[in-house]
Amino acid sequence: MRVICFANQKGGVGKTISCVNLAVSIAQQGQKVLVMDMDLQGNASTYLGIKPGSIAYDTSLLLEDDNFPLERAIVPTKYGLDLVPANSTLGRANTTLVGVLGRENRLREKVENFINRRSNKQYDYIMIDCCPDINLIATNALMTATDLVVPIQPKQFAMEGMSDLASKIGDLYRKLDPKVKLLGILVTMYREGTALDKVMVDLLREKIEREFGDGYMFPEVIRGSTVVSESEKVGPLVVHYPDVPASLAYRRNAQFIMEKN
Amino acid sequence: MATAMTLREDVQEEKILIEIETNSAEHSIRRSGRKELWLEASVEEAIKKSLSSHERWKTIDPSAYDLENNTVNDVHEAMQGRYYVVVNDFYVIAQDTLNSVKIGDLVKQADDTAYKYGVRIRVQRDEPAKKVSSKYDVLREELKEMVDALSITGLFAGNLLQQTTIDPRAIEFLSGKAINGLVTKAHNLFRNKDYKGALEIYDVFLKVEPENADYHFLSGKALICLGEYEKGLQSLEDAKRLGHDKAGVVVQTILDFRKQYGMYPLREQAELF
Q1: What is the ipTM of this complex?
Q2: Chain B, nearest residue to A222 by Cα
Q3: Chain B residues with CB inside 8 Å of A162's CB?
Q4: Fewest CB atoms less than 10 Å from the CB: which of A92, A148, A227, A246?
Protein backbone atom coordinates (compact mmCIF):
# COMPACT_ATOMS: atom_id res chain seq x y z
CA MET A 1 0.00 0.00 0.00
CA ARG A 2 1.23 3.44 -0.84
CA VAL A 3 0.47 6.48 1.28
CA ILE A 4 0.69 9.65 -0.78
CA CYS A 5 0.81 12.97 1.00
CA PHE A 6 -0.03 16.24 -0.77
CA ALA A 7 1.85 18.97 0.99
CA ASN A 8 2.82 22.56 0.52
CA GLN A 9 2.93 25.09 3.29
CA LYS A 10 1.49 27.68 0.94
CA GLY A 11 -2.28 27.70 0.83
CA GLY A 12 -4.39 27.91 -2.31
CA VAL A 13 -2.01 26.04 -4.56
CA GLY A 14 -4.46 23.30 -5.46
CA LYS A 15 -3.56 20.64 -2.91
CA THR A 16 -7.12 19.57 -2.21
CA ILE A 17 -8.36 19.62 -5.78
CA SER A 18 -5.29 17.74 -6.93
CA CYS A 19 -5.43 15.17 -4.14
CA VAL A 20 -9.11 14.41 -4.66
CA ASN A 21 -9.10 14.39 -8.46
CA LEU A 22 -6.06 12.14 -8.58
CA ALA A 23 -7.62 9.89 -5.94
CA VAL A 24 -10.87 9.62 -7.90
CA SER A 25 -8.94 9.01 -11.14
CA ILE A 26 -7.00 6.19 -9.50
CA ALA A 27 -10.21 4.74 -8.04
CA GLN A 28 -11.74 4.85 -11.52
CA GLN A 29 -8.91 2.54 -12.60
CA GLY A 30 -10.20 -0.10 -10.18
CA GLN A 31 -7.81 0.66 -7.33
CA LYS A 32 -9.01 0.83 -3.73
CA VAL A 33 -8.43 4.34 -2.48
CA LEU A 34 -8.87 6.08 0.84
CA VAL A 35 -8.63 9.85 1.04
CA MET A 36 -7.60 11.21 4.40
CA ASP A 37 -8.52 14.82 5.03
CA MET A 38 -5.87 16.35 7.24
CA ASP A 39 -6.88 19.95 6.75
CA LEU A 40 -9.06 21.48 9.41
CA GLN A 41 -10.96 23.39 6.74
CA GLY A 42 -12.34 20.03 5.64
CA ASN A 43 -12.32 21.00 1.99
CA ALA A 44 -11.50 17.54 0.71
CA SER A 45 -14.46 16.21 2.70
CA THR A 46 -16.80 18.82 1.27
CA TYR A 47 -15.43 18.27 -2.23
CA LEU A 48 -16.26 14.59 -1.88
CA GLY A 49 -19.81 15.39 -0.77
CA ILE A 50 -19.37 14.97 3.00
CA LYS A 51 -20.40 18.00 5.02
CA PRO A 52 -17.92 18.65 7.83
CA GLY A 53 -20.79 19.30 10.25
CA SER A 54 -22.41 15.96 9.55
CA ILE A 55 -19.55 13.67 10.47
CA ALA A 56 -19.42 11.61 13.64
CA TYR A 57 -15.69 10.94 13.66
CA ASP A 58 -12.81 12.74 12.07
CA THR A 59 -9.04 12.67 11.70
CA SER A 60 -8.51 14.46 15.01
CA LEU A 61 -9.56 11.31 16.86
CA LEU A 62 -6.91 9.33 15.04
CA LEU A 63 -4.29 11.67 16.39
CA GLU A 64 -5.66 12.25 19.87
CA ASP A 65 -7.29 9.01 20.96
CA ASP A 66 -4.99 6.03 21.49
CA ASN A 67 -7.83 3.55 21.24
CA PHE A 68 -9.63 4.99 18.24
CA PRO A 69 -8.98 2.74 15.23
CA LEU A 70 -8.75 4.00 11.67
CA GLU A 71 -11.69 1.82 10.57
CA ARG A 72 -14.15 3.77 12.66
CA ALA A 73 -13.38 7.07 10.98
CA ILE A 74 -13.84 5.80 7.42
CA VAL A 75 -16.95 6.82 5.52
CA PRO A 76 -17.88 5.84 1.96
CA THR A 77 -18.37 8.50 -0.70
CA LYS A 78 -20.37 8.45 -3.91
CA TYR A 79 -17.19 8.63 -5.98
CA GLY A 80 -15.95 5.06 -5.56
CA LEU A 81 -13.50 5.75 -2.79
CA ASP A 82 -13.57 6.10 0.98
CA LEU A 83 -12.81 9.07 3.13
CA VAL A 84 -11.60 9.93 6.59
CA PRO A 85 -13.21 13.34 6.92
CA ALA A 86 -11.98 16.35 8.82
CA ASN A 87 -13.45 19.45 10.33
CA SER A 88 -12.24 22.32 12.45
CA THR A 89 -11.74 20.13 15.52
CA LEU A 90 -8.63 18.78 13.84
CA GLY A 91 -6.83 22.02 14.67
CA ARG A 92 -7.02 21.08 18.34
CA ALA A 93 -4.51 18.28 17.79
CA ASN A 94 -1.71 20.76 17.25
CA THR A 95 -1.96 21.74 20.90
CA THR A 96 -3.24 18.56 22.58
CA LEU A 97 -0.39 16.51 21.17
CA VAL A 98 2.39 18.84 22.23
CA GLY A 99 3.24 16.96 25.42
CA VAL A 100 2.53 13.50 24.05
CA LEU A 101 5.37 11.03 23.64
CA GLY A 102 5.76 9.91 20.04
CA ARG A 103 3.40 12.65 18.91
CA GLU A 104 4.80 12.72 15.37
CA ASN A 105 4.03 9.06 14.77
CA ARG A 106 0.44 8.84 15.98
CA LEU A 107 -1.07 8.56 12.53
CA ARG A 108 1.59 6.18 11.30
CA GLU A 109 0.84 3.81 14.17
CA LYS A 110 -2.87 3.90 13.39
CA VAL A 111 -2.26 3.12 9.73
CA GLU A 112 0.22 0.34 10.56
CA ASN A 113 -2.26 -1.19 13.01
CA PHE A 114 -4.94 -0.98 10.37
CA ILE A 115 -2.75 -2.86 7.91
CA ASN A 116 -1.74 -5.45 10.48
CA ARG A 117 -5.33 -6.15 11.50
CA ARG A 118 -6.02 -7.16 7.89
CA SER A 119 -9.58 -5.97 8.11
CA ASN A 120 -11.97 -6.27 5.20
CA LYS A 121 -11.19 -2.78 4.09
CA GLN A 122 -7.71 -2.68 2.66
CA TYR A 123 -6.50 -0.05 0.25
CA ASP A 124 -4.03 0.20 -2.57
CA TYR A 125 -3.60 3.91 -1.94
CA ILE A 126 -4.14 6.24 0.97
CA MET A 127 -4.03 9.83 -0.24
CA ILE A 128 -3.62 12.51 2.39
CA ASP A 129 -4.67 16.09 1.81
CA CYS A 130 -2.39 18.02 4.14
CA CYS A 131 -3.04 21.33 5.78
CA PRO A 132 -0.99 24.32 4.67
CA ASP A 133 1.98 24.76 7.02
CA ILE A 134 4.23 22.02 8.31
CA ASN A 135 2.81 21.69 11.81
CA LEU A 136 2.28 18.66 14.01
CA ILE A 137 -0.66 17.47 11.91
CA ALA A 138 1.30 17.72 8.67
CA THR A 139 4.30 16.09 10.33
CA ASN A 140 2.10 13.13 11.23
CA ALA A 141 1.02 12.91 7.60
CA LEU A 142 4.61 13.05 6.35
CA MET A 143 5.75 10.45 8.87
CA THR A 144 3.02 8.14 7.60
CA ALA A 145 3.56 8.75 3.90
CA THR A 146 5.61 6.72 1.47
CA ASP A 147 5.30 9.34 -1.28
CA LEU A 148 5.14 13.10 -1.37
CA VAL A 149 3.41 15.22 -4.01
CA VAL A 150 4.11 18.94 -3.99
CA PRO A 151 1.53 20.97 -5.88
CA ILE A 152 2.94 24.31 -6.92
CA GLN A 153 1.89 27.36 -8.89
CA PRO A 154 4.41 28.58 -11.48
CA LYS A 155 4.94 31.88 -9.68
CA GLN A 156 8.02 33.41 -8.13
CA PHE A 157 6.68 33.51 -4.57
CA ALA A 158 5.44 29.94 -4.87
CA MET A 159 8.87 28.83 -6.04
CA GLU A 160 10.50 30.57 -3.12
CA GLY A 161 7.93 28.95 -0.83
CA MET A 162 9.02 25.59 -2.20
CA SER A 163 12.53 26.30 -0.89
CA ASP A 164 11.09 26.80 2.60
CA LEU A 165 9.16 23.57 2.31
CA ALA A 166 12.34 21.77 1.22
CA SER A 167 14.15 23.16 4.22
CA LYS A 168 11.44 21.96 6.61
CA ILE A 169 11.34 18.51 5.07
CA GLY A 170 15.14 18.37 5.32
CA ASP A 171 14.82 19.17 9.04
CA LEU A 172 12.26 16.43 9.39
CA TYR A 173 14.78 13.95 8.03
CA ARG A 174 17.53 15.11 10.33
CA LYS A 175 15.30 14.77 13.36
CA LEU A 176 12.75 12.06 12.72
CA ASP A 177 13.95 9.74 9.92
CA PRO A 178 10.76 9.60 7.85
CA LYS A 179 10.54 7.20 4.95
CA VAL A 180 8.73 9.50 2.54
CA LYS A 181 10.18 10.10 -0.93
CA LEU A 182 9.26 12.78 -3.42
CA LEU A 183 6.91 11.32 -6.00
CA GLY A 184 6.61 14.47 -8.02
CA ILE A 185 6.06 18.18 -8.32
CA LEU A 186 2.68 19.00 -9.79
CA VAL A 187 2.28 22.36 -11.49
CA THR A 188 -1.20 23.75 -10.92
CA MET A 189 -3.09 26.87 -12.01
CA TYR A 190 -0.94 27.05 -15.11
CA ARG A 191 -1.92 29.82 -17.50
CA GLU A 192 -1.70 28.23 -20.89
CA GLY A 193 -0.13 30.49 -23.45
CA THR A 194 1.65 32.80 -21.05
CA ALA A 195 5.37 33.12 -21.46
CA LEU A 196 5.88 33.70 -17.75
CA ASP A 197 4.34 30.41 -16.68
CA LYS A 198 6.09 28.53 -19.43
CA VAL A 199 9.46 29.99 -18.45
CA MET A 200 8.90 29.11 -14.79
CA VAL A 201 7.95 25.53 -15.55
CA ASP A 202 10.76 25.07 -18.08
CA LEU A 203 13.37 26.44 -15.70
CA LEU A 204 12.14 24.35 -12.80
CA ARG A 205 12.03 21.19 -14.90
CA GLU A 206 15.55 21.83 -16.21
CA LYS A 207 16.90 22.46 -12.71
CA ILE A 208 15.36 19.31 -11.32
CA GLU A 209 16.50 17.16 -14.23
CA ARG A 210 20.00 18.58 -13.99
CA GLU A 211 20.32 18.13 -10.23
CA PHE A 212 18.16 15.11 -9.45
CA GLY A 213 17.33 13.34 -12.70
CA ASP A 214 14.20 12.71 -14.75
CA GLY A 215 10.73 11.83 -13.61
CA TYR A 216 10.17 14.20 -10.73
CA MET A 217 7.78 16.51 -12.54
CA PHE A 218 4.28 15.27 -13.26
CA PRO A 219 3.82 14.85 -17.00
CA GLU A 220 0.83 17.18 -17.22
CA VAL A 221 0.43 20.65 -15.78
CA ILE A 222 -3.02 21.55 -14.47
CA ARG A 223 -4.33 24.56 -16.27
CA GLY A 224 -6.17 27.16 -14.23
CA SER A 225 -9.70 27.75 -15.41
CA THR A 226 -13.09 28.79 -14.21
CA VAL A 227 -14.25 25.20 -14.56
CA VAL A 228 -11.68 24.09 -11.99
CA SER A 229 -12.96 26.70 -9.55
CA GLU A 230 -16.58 25.87 -10.28
CA SER A 231 -15.99 22.21 -9.54
CA GLU A 232 -15.49 23.16 -5.89
CA LYS A 233 -19.25 23.61 -5.71
CA VAL A 234 -20.26 20.33 -7.29
CA GLY A 235 -17.48 17.82 -6.73
CA PRO A 236 -14.49 16.28 -8.44
CA LEU A 237 -13.68 17.64 -11.88
CA VAL A 238 -12.90 14.23 -13.30
CA VAL A 239 -16.47 13.18 -12.57
CA HIS A 240 -18.46 16.34 -13.19
CA TYR A 241 -16.39 17.81 -16.02
CA PRO A 242 -14.66 14.73 -17.39
CA ASP A 243 -13.69 16.22 -20.75
CA VAL A 244 -12.10 19.51 -19.75
CA PRO A 245 -8.30 19.73 -20.12
CA ALA A 246 -7.74 19.72 -16.36
CA SER A 247 -9.61 16.42 -16.01
CA LEU A 248 -7.64 14.86 -18.83
CA ALA A 249 -4.45 16.08 -17.20
CA TYR A 250 -5.43 14.63 -13.82
CA ARG A 251 -6.17 11.27 -15.39
CA ARG A 252 -2.79 11.17 -17.12
CA ASN A 253 -1.08 12.20 -13.91
CA ALA A 254 -2.95 9.46 -12.04
CA GLN A 255 -1.50 6.99 -14.52
CA PHE A 256 1.94 8.44 -13.77
CA ILE A 257 1.41 7.79 -10.05
CA MET A 258 0.32 4.21 -10.62
CA GLU A 259 3.23 3.49 -12.94
CA LYS A 260 5.85 5.11 -10.72
CA ASN A 261 6.30 2.71 -7.89
CA MET B 1 -17.07 55.01 -25.25
CA ALA B 2 -13.60 54.43 -23.96
CA THR B 3 -11.78 51.79 -25.86
CA ALA B 4 -8.67 51.47 -23.79
CA MET B 5 -7.67 47.92 -23.66
CA THR B 6 -4.52 46.32 -22.45
CA LEU B 7 -3.49 43.33 -24.39
CA ARG B 8 -1.57 40.76 -22.50
CA GLU B 9 2.09 41.12 -23.27
CA ASP B 10 3.09 37.79 -21.96
CA VAL B 11 0.76 35.78 -24.11
CA GLN B 12 2.45 33.32 -26.35
CA GLU B 13 1.06 32.85 -29.75
CA GLU B 14 0.84 29.14 -29.71
CA LYS B 15 -2.52 28.47 -28.15
CA ILE B 16 -5.91 30.00 -28.38
CA LEU B 17 -6.83 32.33 -25.61
CA ILE B 18 -10.15 33.92 -25.07
CA GLU B 19 -9.85 36.95 -22.92
CA ILE B 20 -12.82 39.03 -22.06
CA GLU B 21 -12.81 42.45 -20.59
CA THR B 22 -15.01 45.45 -20.61
CA ASN B 23 -14.11 48.57 -22.51
CA SER B 24 -17.15 50.64 -21.77
CA ALA B 25 -17.96 53.08 -19.02
CA GLU B 26 -16.15 53.12 -15.75
CA HIS B 27 -19.02 51.67 -13.79
CA SER B 28 -18.90 48.61 -15.99
CA ILE B 29 -15.23 48.19 -15.42
CA ARG B 30 -15.70 48.61 -11.74
CA ARG B 31 -18.54 46.16 -11.60
CA SER B 32 -17.41 43.40 -13.85
CA GLY B 33 -13.71 43.97 -13.71
CA ARG B 34 -11.34 42.19 -15.95
CA LYS B 35 -12.29 38.68 -16.76
CA GLU B 36 -10.34 35.90 -18.30
CA LEU B 37 -11.84 32.73 -19.53
CA TRP B 38 -9.74 30.02 -20.97
CA LEU B 39 -11.11 27.92 -23.74
CA GLU B 40 -11.91 24.91 -21.61
CA ALA B 41 -15.31 23.97 -22.97
CA SER B 42 -16.46 26.03 -25.90
CA VAL B 43 -16.50 29.56 -27.15
CA GLU B 44 -20.20 29.62 -26.58
CA GLU B 45 -19.81 28.74 -22.96
CA ALA B 46 -17.10 31.33 -22.51
CA ILE B 47 -19.17 34.07 -24.07
CA LYS B 48 -22.28 33.06 -22.18
CA LYS B 49 -20.38 33.24 -18.95
CA SER B 50 -18.96 36.62 -19.73
CA LEU B 51 -22.31 37.99 -20.79
CA SER B 52 -24.21 36.58 -17.86
CA SER B 53 -22.00 38.52 -15.49
CA HIS B 54 -22.89 41.76 -17.20
CA GLU B 55 -26.36 43.10 -16.84
CA ARG B 56 -26.36 45.26 -19.93
CA TRP B 57 -26.37 42.50 -22.45
CA LYS B 58 -29.89 41.57 -21.51
CA THR B 59 -31.26 44.90 -22.67
CA ILE B 60 -29.75 44.79 -26.11
CA ASP B 61 -31.99 45.14 -29.13
CA PRO B 62 -30.80 42.60 -31.71
CA SER B 63 -32.19 44.63 -34.59
CA ALA B 64 -29.63 47.32 -33.87
CA TYR B 65 -26.70 45.12 -34.75
CA ASP B 66 -24.90 45.01 -37.98
CA LEU B 67 -23.45 41.61 -38.64
CA GLU B 68 -22.67 41.97 -42.29
CA ASN B 69 -18.93 42.53 -41.90
CA ASN B 70 -18.36 39.94 -39.28
CA THR B 71 -17.13 36.98 -41.21
CA VAL B 72 -14.46 34.44 -40.73
CA ASN B 73 -12.66 35.86 -43.77
CA ASP B 74 -12.03 39.07 -41.89
CA VAL B 75 -10.13 37.11 -39.36
CA HIS B 76 -8.08 35.24 -41.89
CA GLU B 77 -7.01 38.53 -43.39
CA ALA B 78 -5.85 39.66 -40.02
CA MET B 79 -3.73 36.63 -39.37
CA GLN B 80 -0.44 38.52 -39.27
CA GLY B 81 -0.95 40.05 -35.90
CA ARG B 82 -3.24 40.37 -32.98
CA TYR B 83 -6.91 40.53 -33.60
CA TYR B 84 -9.92 40.37 -31.46
CA VAL B 85 -13.62 40.08 -31.64
CA VAL B 86 -15.71 42.67 -29.89
CA VAL B 87 -18.96 41.50 -28.41
CA ASN B 88 -20.77 44.57 -27.20
CA ASP B 89 -18.75 45.77 -24.25
CA PHE B 90 -16.55 42.74 -24.24
CA TYR B 91 -13.48 42.02 -26.18
CA VAL B 92 -13.07 38.40 -27.00
CA ILE B 93 -9.46 38.27 -27.96
CA ALA B 94 -8.26 35.43 -30.01
CA GLN B 95 -4.70 35.09 -30.93
CA ASP B 96 -2.78 32.34 -32.54
CA THR B 97 -0.62 33.12 -35.47
CA LEU B 98 0.44 29.52 -35.76
CA ASN B 99 -2.87 27.89 -36.45
CA SER B 100 -5.22 29.76 -38.72
CA VAL B 101 -7.75 26.95 -38.80
CA LYS B 102 -8.24 27.14 -35.09
CA ILE B 103 -8.58 30.87 -35.23
CA GLY B 104 -11.12 30.55 -37.98
CA ASP B 105 -13.07 28.01 -35.97
CA LEU B 106 -12.86 30.13 -32.91
CA VAL B 107 -14.19 33.25 -34.52
CA LYS B 108 -16.82 31.33 -36.42
CA GLN B 109 -18.07 29.99 -33.14
CA ALA B 110 -17.89 33.42 -31.58
CA ASP B 111 -19.76 34.84 -34.52
CA ASP B 112 -22.49 32.22 -34.40
CA THR B 113 -22.84 32.56 -30.66
CA ALA B 114 -23.05 36.31 -30.81
CA TYR B 115 -25.80 36.03 -33.38
CA LYS B 116 -27.64 33.46 -31.31
CA TYR B 117 -27.56 35.65 -28.25
CA GLY B 118 -28.44 38.77 -30.15
CA VAL B 119 -25.32 40.73 -29.55
CA ARG B 120 -23.07 42.65 -31.88
CA ILE B 121 -19.80 41.27 -33.01
CA ARG B 122 -17.03 42.75 -35.10
CA VAL B 123 -13.46 41.86 -35.81
CA GLN B 124 -10.59 44.20 -35.18
CA ARG B 125 -6.94 43.91 -35.70
CA ASP B 126 -4.19 45.34 -33.59
CA GLU B 127 -0.54 45.84 -34.34
CA PRO B 128 1.39 42.62 -34.73
CA ALA B 129 2.28 41.14 -31.41
CA LYS B 130 5.85 41.06 -30.25
CA LYS B 131 7.77 37.97 -31.15
CA VAL B 132 7.00 35.38 -28.54
CA SER B 133 10.48 34.03 -28.46
CA SER B 134 11.93 37.36 -27.45
CA LYS B 135 9.47 37.74 -24.58
CA TYR B 136 10.14 34.19 -23.49
CA ASP B 137 13.88 34.67 -23.75
CA VAL B 138 13.84 37.92 -21.80
CA LEU B 139 11.81 36.38 -18.99
CA ARG B 140 13.99 33.32 -19.00
CA GLU B 141 17.09 35.44 -18.66
CA GLU B 142 15.51 37.38 -15.81
CA LEU B 143 14.30 34.37 -13.86
CA LYS B 144 17.01 31.79 -14.48
CA GLU B 145 19.22 32.96 -11.66
CA MET B 146 16.35 32.96 -9.19
CA VAL B 147 15.22 29.45 -10.10
CA ASP B 148 18.76 28.06 -10.19
CA ALA B 149 19.42 29.50 -6.75
CA LEU B 150 16.42 27.77 -5.20
CA SER B 151 17.50 25.33 -2.55
CA ILE B 152 15.14 22.40 -2.92
CA THR B 153 17.38 19.45 -2.10
CA GLY B 154 15.38 18.83 1.09
CA LEU B 155 12.42 17.77 -1.02
CA PHE B 156 14.57 15.01 -2.46
CA ALA B 157 16.11 13.95 0.84
CA GLY B 158 14.22 10.65 0.93
CA ASN B 159 15.08 9.88 -2.68
CA LEU B 160 18.77 10.61 -2.14
CA LEU B 161 18.97 8.62 1.06
CA GLN B 162 17.32 5.57 -0.41
CA GLN B 163 19.56 5.27 -3.46
CA THR B 164 21.80 2.22 -3.64
CA THR B 165 24.86 4.41 -4.13
CA ILE B 166 25.15 7.06 -1.47
CA ASP B 167 24.79 10.59 -2.77
CA PRO B 168 26.97 13.01 -0.77
CA ARG B 169 24.09 15.49 -0.81
CA ALA B 170 22.11 13.05 1.31
CA ILE B 171 24.50 13.18 4.26
CA GLU B 172 23.21 16.51 5.51
CA PHE B 173 19.76 14.97 5.90
CA LEU B 174 20.88 12.01 7.96
CA SER B 175 19.83 12.02 11.57
CA GLY B 176 22.54 11.42 14.19
CA LYS B 177 21.24 7.87 14.53
CA ALA B 178 21.36 7.30 10.79
CA ILE B 179 24.94 8.66 10.56
CA ASN B 180 26.06 6.31 13.32
CA GLY B 181 24.34 3.48 11.47
CA LEU B 182 26.18 4.31 8.28
CA VAL B 183 29.56 4.54 10.02
CA THR B 184 28.90 1.18 11.68
CA LYS B 185 27.96 -0.25 8.32
CA ALA B 186 31.27 0.93 6.85
CA HIS B 187 33.24 -0.58 9.73
CA ASN B 188 31.39 -3.87 9.34
CA LEU B 189 32.11 -3.89 5.62
CA PHE B 190 35.78 -3.28 6.39
CA ARG B 191 35.85 -6.08 8.97
CA ASN B 192 34.24 -8.40 6.43
CA LYS B 193 36.96 -7.41 3.95
CA ASP B 194 34.54 -5.59 1.65
CA TYR B 195 37.05 -2.75 1.33
CA LYS B 196 35.43 -1.30 -1.76
CA GLY B 197 32.06 -1.04 -0.01
CA ALA B 198 33.64 0.54 3.05
CA LEU B 199 35.67 2.94 0.92
CA GLU B 200 32.51 4.16 -0.85
CA ILE B 201 31.02 5.21 2.47
CA TYR B 202 34.26 6.79 3.75
CA ASP B 203 34.56 8.73 0.51
CA VAL B 204 31.06 10.10 0.94
CA PHE B 205 31.82 11.23 4.46
CA LEU B 206 35.07 12.79 3.23
CA LYS B 207 33.19 14.82 0.65
CA VAL B 208 31.08 16.22 3.46
CA GLU B 209 33.94 16.57 5.96
CA PRO B 210 37.18 16.85 3.97
CA GLU B 211 39.18 17.75 7.09
CA ASN B 212 38.13 14.74 9.13
CA ALA B 213 41.32 12.85 10.08
CA ASP B 214 39.46 9.65 10.98
CA TYR B 215 37.84 9.34 7.58
CA HIS B 216 41.18 9.93 5.83
CA PHE B 217 42.76 7.25 7.99
CA LEU B 218 40.00 4.70 7.35
CA SER B 219 39.94 5.54 3.67
CA GLY B 220 43.75 5.14 3.52
CA LYS B 221 43.60 1.72 5.18
CA ALA B 222 40.88 0.56 2.81
CA LEU B 223 42.91 1.72 -0.21
CA ILE B 224 46.04 -0.05 1.03
CA CYS B 225 44.02 -3.24 1.48
CA LEU B 226 42.74 -2.83 -2.07
CA GLY B 227 46.34 -2.62 -3.28
CA GLU B 228 46.14 1.07 -4.17
CA TYR B 229 49.28 1.99 -2.23
CA GLU B 230 50.05 5.42 -3.64
CA LYS B 231 46.54 6.71 -3.01
CA GLY B 232 46.38 4.94 0.32
CA LEU B 233 49.63 6.47 1.51
CA GLN B 234 48.41 9.88 0.43
CA SER B 235 45.23 9.46 2.49
CA LEU B 236 47.24 8.30 5.48
CA GLU B 237 49.59 11.28 5.09
CA ASP B 238 46.51 13.53 5.07
CA ALA B 239 45.27 11.85 8.23
CA LYS B 240 48.67 12.39 9.84
CA ARG B 241 48.71 16.04 8.81
CA LEU B 242 45.25 16.47 10.34
CA GLY B 243 46.47 15.04 13.62
CA HIS B 244 45.44 11.38 13.53
CA ASP B 245 47.47 9.65 16.23
CA LYS B 246 48.01 6.29 14.45
CA ALA B 247 48.40 7.45 10.86
CA GLY B 248 52.08 8.34 11.21
CA VAL B 249 52.95 4.88 12.59
CA VAL B 250 51.12 3.07 9.80
CA VAL B 251 52.76 5.23 7.11
CA GLN B 252 56.20 4.58 8.59
CA THR B 253 55.53 0.84 8.84
CA ILE B 254 54.53 0.64 5.19
CA LEU B 255 57.55 2.68 4.07
CA ASP B 256 59.91 0.58 6.21
CA PHE B 257 58.40 -2.58 4.75
CA ARG B 258 58.98 -1.34 1.21
CA LYS B 259 62.54 -0.30 2.06
CA GLN B 260 63.33 -3.66 3.58
CA TYR B 261 61.64 -5.95 1.05
CA GLY B 262 61.52 -3.72 -2.05
CA MET B 263 57.77 -4.05 -2.28
CA TYR B 264 54.60 -2.93 -0.56
CA PRO B 265 53.06 -5.29 1.97
CA LEU B 266 50.66 -7.94 0.78
CA ARG B 267 47.00 -7.42 1.51
CA GLU B 268 47.02 -9.90 4.37
CA GLN B 269 49.92 -8.02 5.93
CA ALA B 270 48.34 -4.64 5.34
CA GLU B 271 45.16 -5.78 7.05
CA LEU B 272 47.17 -6.17 10.25
CA PHE B 273 48.04 -2.45 10.24
Answers
A1: 0.89
A2: B40
A3: 150, 152, 155
A4: A92
